[in-house]
Request: fold
Amino acid sequence: MNNPKNKSSIKASTFKRLMHYTKPHIGYLIIALIFSIISVASMLYVPIVTGNAIDFIDELYLEHSQGLTINFNDLIPFLIKIVISSIIYGITQWLMNLLTNIASNKTIQDIREDAFHKMLYVPLSYIDHNSHGDIISRIINDVDYISTGLLQGFTQLFTGIITIIGTILFMLFTNIALTIVVVVLTPLSLFVASFIAKHIHKMYEAQGKAMGELTGIIEEYVGNEKIVKTFHQEQKGIDKFKEVNNELKKWGVKAQIYSAYTNPCTRFVNGIVYAAVGVIGAIVIFYNKDSSVVQFNKVLNYILFKSSFTVGALTCFLSYANQYTKPFNEISNVVNELQNAFTGAGRVFKLIDEESEIDLGKQSLDANGKVSLQNVSFSYFDNQTLIENFNLNIHPGERVAIVGPTGCGKTTLINLLMRFYDVKKGQILVDDIDITNLKRSELRKNYGMVLQDTWLFTGTVRENIAYGKPDATLEEIIKASKLAHCHNFIEKLPQGYDTMVSDNEAISQGQKQLLCIARIMLMIPPMLILDEATSSIDTLTEIQIQDAFQTMMKGRTSFIIAHRLSTIKNADIILVMNNGNIIEQGTHQELLKMHGFYYQLYNSQFEE
Amino acid sequence: MIKLAKYLKPYRVKAIIAPIFKLIEAIFELIVPIVMKMIIDKGITENLGIDYILKMGGILVLLSVVGLCSSLVCQTLASIVSQGYGTIVRNELFKHIQTFSHKEIDKFGSATLITRITNDVNQIQTGVAMLIRLVVRAPFLVIGATIMACTIHLKISLIFVCTALLLSIVIYFIMSRSVPYFKNVQNQLDVATTITSENLSGTRVIRAFSRQNTEEKRFNEACTSLNKASVNVGKISALLNPITYMIVNIAIVFILWFGGNEVVFNTTLTKGDIVALVNYMTQILLALLVLANLVVIFTKASASGYRINEIFDTKPSLSMGKDDIKENNEAVITFKNVSFSYNDNKLLDNKLALENINFEIYKGQTIGIIGATGSGKSTLVQLLSHLYDVTKGEILLYGKNIKEINNDELRNYIGIVPQKTVLFQGTIEENLRWRKEDATDEELWQALEIAQAKEFVQKYEKGLKEEVVAGGKNFSGGQKQRLTIARALVGNPHILIMDDSASALDFVTDAALRKAIKNDLSDMIVIIVSQRTSSIKNCDLILCLDDGKLVGKGTHQELLQSSEIYHKIYQSQFKEEGVNNE
Reply:
């Protein structure tokens, strides 16, 4: 699994995928690259003109000292060239940044949207079995890494390479020997940088791990602050936090020191190059003045002194030598960021590559409410048996109650009915149609579902109630709210139906549940699923809501899960589940007569 | 940002020494052009020869070596300082958050708190490192180069002064302009995060309603705004580099023009001087270009610093008492005219969560609290464990206001089983020892037995040492609830509060639990919050709440007579149960 070949092929495919996402915006990038070439060229041109200007000043000086008349204004063309090049550089540089920014933001928007899209259609098992924090960080943070690392990194890399090539060309044009000096010495900094990058990776990993642990502690202790408080465990949390935080510091310091060494090292190489250019350049000029001083062989003579070398040219070289290591520095930085980006991209693509729920069914459905399960087997994991060879026939309009001790698998049945999970064996039929032949949305729209875990999204109360029927009028919404007995408390909210709510808002669990019930009351679908739908609601309100449910359930097939047996004893059929199996089924009276599990369960309610 | 500087204190010395080394490096860097000027003027023009040139070259190399060494020292110190600083800020933040009452945590939301402790602290940590390493360098070089220019030619150095001023104005302007844009990007990112998180928690509902398309649209809109915000910020911050470059090059043009004039007509300058001056300008440019890249880091850091300060500036709203609990013969708990509102704003205070509550609880009593959803049951028990301060009236423990009692002591006195069942990462044993760290295994098993959890814990191979994963996800809801009950029982609290904590239990377990508590823990004050009359009807005192008001107080029989609401609740449950209890 972990051999390097595999890794590099993963990298290659990640890169291909990224290219695929960049393609629609490649125009921006190409133009950006063209601008980058222009800006590099104009940037490199400035030192040459400066050098020439210095030489020209020198000439003027000599002529002036010899008493010749000179026109100092002849210097102006040089200066204009510098100003124009600078302006061109400035504009192209800015445009290049702007275009890259646009391209990268568009690209990551596409990636992010695809990842989000996948999250909406991935089988539920993925969401149930993966940490939500992890999925969020894939969609948000990892995509950000792609933006900073890969796309902006890419232009930096490109600009860097162009600068290096451009510099070499400009230098060769001026003097071969000095060029060789620069070209031979500078890669030293690359060598240093790659050495550091290799060692730093391990530290970053350890640092990341500690950070993850730290987040876990915060999540636990802050998310459950009330419990922590009531058990006065604050100090324990602080100690635990400190411990992991110190571990984080240990690795953080190491990683940072290593990465911080890159810059001085390359600057040192830079200094050496500068000295070498200065000394050799000076010697060349000196030799040009008085060729008797040094003797070299013919070839060397040719290379060194082919072109006339002046102080101006030396200035130009020195400023190249100064700037030349900059792209190397940048490239080594980019390498770091690229690594982050690739890891991030790999993680996002892994999410995007998840199989979507299979939705091959084409048929639509307006259910009468006949539901049958035929030889159904199901388990969440392969090595586990949960529901086996289960049969059930429900006629339209029947009320099915599912009871059993905590964790007996009642919710599993709902997962199957709603096709949140697919059966392993057998089939589920609605109106005699195998539900796998239905579009998932068609199946689901026939069910109205209220779950124990209430869910509201950030939006107004009105929007939340109208979730299943966005075009509902306010009258309809109020009517549904009245049925769900939440109209009164909504009216009391600061902005009534237009009050913004979200999942962590200060309205109570029970009130949330009422809003969720109102949602269903508004839709009135042909079949109902109520999973502990009234668990957080007081009995008085519950009874009133039950009435509303009764009216609503009339003629509708419904599945009810409840702890309070009183709420379900009117059901047409009661399924008693234990350890994932249905162990008894029948009406309330039938089950009581059996003197079995249900009997026990029922009587325990009245035990004193 | 300045407020956060105090956490640098333990690293004060290092934080000062590090820039000094940076200064040394900068000084050596500034000597380089002078040496180069000597090579040109003395070595070449004055014909001092190759030996001289080589000697100067040696000096250049030496300068580089010394520069490297001092720079390495600076980098090392900067890393230690910034990481140490980040560690301290994280610790302090976490500690501060631990003092928050629920009001404050609710205000921020725990997701935000996590990002602030992790990401935001990382940002300011990077900011500190860069401040020491690079930011100090830039002004050093700019000022140093200007001073060096002065030594070469006073009049020409005016160009340097002007350039430095102009550059600082430009940098300030661009930085201050881009900060609000960066904040905007952060906000947009928060919106996208919220939507993602909502979609994960609500995935079943969204799919049940087949509303994926709307959700996608919502998310895509957020992404589009984020995209726009990011591009906007780029437009401004990307100006810095080109503008700096243009200014510096125009300055070079001035140097050539005025300097050239000096060289040619006044001979107060040499060729080498011009080269050195141009060199200094280039040095300024390079230092500032690095700074330009840092602008992003700093604007982010300052936005982060702002968010972190927001937490530090939030003072816990809860009063902190100091006194110990002294038992006496007075009522153990007294609620005296207690009113409470979650809303601090008195103007909006039309809705009280609790209104004028009065009751007394004596040793050994079992108390039942019943009432409709939102009637204030949970609020009442949370006030009792001093998670909030009362808005009006007072709560007394043995005649003493609980505001004056040490919170730790008070909470140790009370064992609470919260509505929300939460276990913490670790082992069963660790979770159970929360109230009493040195509890023996025997004590733990005893608590488990009462909580009806002994049986299933025994089944684990590791028994008490069975692992608990984050959030206790490896236990079922009922198992978790029983473990939280056991947790509250360990160390025999004087008051046990069960806040609707049998909701995930089936009736068999619930009944057995109540029986066990009654038999084994007769001295304890037990407060049961419930919606089922069957759970509380044998209590010594039942408090019936309705819409924040205490509408009934007495035994089951008394309340049936005196409280209409209690009667109604009882009827609603008993009627059905009774009819079928044939």
